[in-house]
Amino acid sequence: DAGVTQSPTHLIKTRGQQVTLRCSPKSGHDTVSWYQQALGQGPQFIFQYYEEEERQRGNFPDRFSGHQFPNYSSELNVNALLLGDSALYLCASSLSQETYNEQFFGPGTRLTVL
Amino acid sequence: GDSVTQMEGPVTLSEEAFLTINCTYTATGYPSLFWYVQYPGEGLQLLLKATKADDKGSNKGFEATYRKETTSFHLEKGSVQVSDSAVYFCALSDLDSNSGYALNFGKGTSLLVTP
Fold first, then answer.
1. How far apart are CA B5 and CA B51, in angstroms?
2. What is the pLDDT of residues B9-50, one digit of tens each?
3. B107: nearest CA in chain A?
4. Can you give the pLDDT at residue B96?
5. Cβ atoms of residues A93 and A73 within 8 Å
6. Contact A42 B93 (CB under 8 A)
7. Is the pLDDT confidence value at A1 over 80?
8. Average pLDDT of span A18-32
9. CB distance from B57 to chain A under 8 Å?
10. Which run of H or of E encompasses B12?
């Protein structure tokens, strides 16, 4: 049973560039959430996608956008990169019918902005 | 709003010592509570969960009890191993609140177990 997968593993970008991160959910899951984890901190919720729409958004600027595809996979896009966007980006998947919002995480994409 | 507070780390223990990592929460509704573990260079793994008051979650020798009266969900293990060295995150989900589908995490507690 494949778990949550993310690509790429690492990325290095420069300020002002744009980046796209990808996520495939755990088999059978239909909901994808994205989190940003700065060094030494807990993950911060960016947004959640369900039925190809953004269902909920955390306190992140519009530079952060996403997409969910019919096969439930998802992309996170970040425009106009800032140094402060350097972090581990985690994707988590869940099943919409599950009552308690149990989320399963991928290994993350480490983004470094120079 | 909802929030989670964890004890500050790092915590350093000798192998076979008893572990407690404190976690308290603030929530407007009746949240579900989780402990996640993050090994170096990896993503988060769900360690255990509890979904209502007085529930005890357990896994791999770790336990935590959902205490509504003290709004706590402390993580315990009777005898730690070197392989338990990791960062532990307490998290809550309150589907009845404004934060809805988000998991709210504490800042994490780093555990180092020495032989």
1. 18
2. 899 999 999 999 999 999 988 899 999 999 988 889 999 999
3. A42
4. 77
5. no
6. no
7. no
8. 96
9. no
10. strand B11-14
